[in-house]
Amino acid sequence: CSGCITSAETVMLQQQSTDEFVQRLSSATQAVVVSLSPQSRASLATHYGITPLQAFRKLTGFLKSLGVRAVFDTSCSRDLSLLESCQEFVDRYRKAAGNSATKQGELPMLASACPGWVCYAEKTHGQHILPHISSTKSPQQVMGTLVKRHACYRLGLRPEDIYHVTIMPCYDKKLEAARDDFIFAVDPGGGTGDSGQAGPRVTEVDSVLTSGEILDLLESRGVDFAALEEAPLDLMLSSVDEAGHVYGVRGGAGGYLETNFRHAARVLFGQTVEGPLQMKTLRNADFKEVSLEVDGKRVLHFAAAYGFRNIQNLVRKIKQGKCEYQFVEIMACPAGCLNGGGQIKPRKGQTAKDLIQHLEAAYLHEVTVRDPADNPLVQELYRTWLGGPYSENARSLLHTQYHERERTVTASISNW
Ligand code: SF4
């Protein structure tokens, strides 16, 4: 995907660098907060031959020694994003079942967590496809909302007092962070925004650094990362259990298919899906489907389509009205985000295949919670801040919209 953003957004894109990050650390007016993705944790862990938890603790220590105020992980924002997506799917399914006239507009629902895919859809397929894309924000942007519209107040800061950096496996996440849709006006009265008064305009995620850029930063400073001490983790927004382990929902590329499938089976058909999903591989390893039958009738039919060719085929079917799926997890990179273009490259003598196997093992090393609704941090955020999954407040804060874009190229940070 080549960029499809405005010139103002392009400026924001160019500012997202390690130099800018280091400069911000000496700012007297803003505190720097960092949010780390599980895929980047796995990338660092694999590169240095340590566990993801060790990588998280060591990176926390390193970043704090530079002056970072807090380091969170994005597992809880991913769980929020998954739960919102589940409720959104159930809502769309019921609407489609209740009114056949809207069926094509509501289903299939297409996952929205991959900005490479979203940008391509906006630029190439416009109104035929955009209504199908889930309105739920990606984990990165949910994290941005959490930090700038909730956690900042708990840190005793205002949204404009924070410079929020995420560490991600992907360059396209920089493009996502720079979208106008993720800038909001702060309520000058001191509330959490949306009072109608004009306050400073604040960006949810100010800068995205890739796993590879973090490695460059460590190497440019001559840091012996594996030998660093392990620092305590910040618990406010990190999914960490009492033993200090990070936990979250696993899944090939984010768990959207799996979590939505189990949730829809339970809520719509009263069925509990036990054990691993029985995925059927179709034309290649990056195109799979799964279905649920009740009384001999197929009631759910979901798919995962990764990589450009599979996405093109799927989009063609949707446009022709021939897509039988109700939900599709779409990711631009073959093998998903673990294989993102911003991940640390293979070591000398290591093949790409070897690396992805090590990354998968590291990723699976973390503690699993099967149902994101069981995450106590998520439960607390819904209770004290959002007012429940897919509530009016959650829909206003954790959902977004998409726009048809001109095919004019203003930036190109493609990795697929
Ligand atoms: Fe980025 Fe690739 Fe993941 Fe999409 S699938 S979010 S392009 S790493």
What does this structure look like?
Keywords: 4Fe-4S, Iron, Iron-sulfur, Metal-binding. Belongs to the NARF family. One of its GO terms (molecular function) is metal ion binding. The chain has a 5-stranded mixed beta sheet, with helices on both faces. It folds into 2 domains: 7-77 and 138-239, 3-Layer(aba) Sandwich (Rossmann fold), CATH 3.40.50.1780; 82-136 and 250-373, Fe-only Hydrogenase (Larger Subunit), Chain L, domain 3 (3-Layer(aba) Sandwich). Helix 3 packs across helix 4 (52-66) and helix 3 packs across helix 14 (352-365). It has 416 residues and is α/β, with parallel strands linked by helices. It contains 16 helices and 13 strands. Iron/sulfur cluster (SF4) binds at residues 114-116, 169-170, 172, 331-333, 336-337, 340, 416.
Salient structural properties:
single chain; 416 residues; alpha/beta; Rossmann fold; Fe-only Hydrogenase (Larger Subunit), Chain L, domain 3; 2 domains; five-stranded mixed sheet; four-stranded parallel sheet; 13 strands; globular; binds iron/sulfur cluster
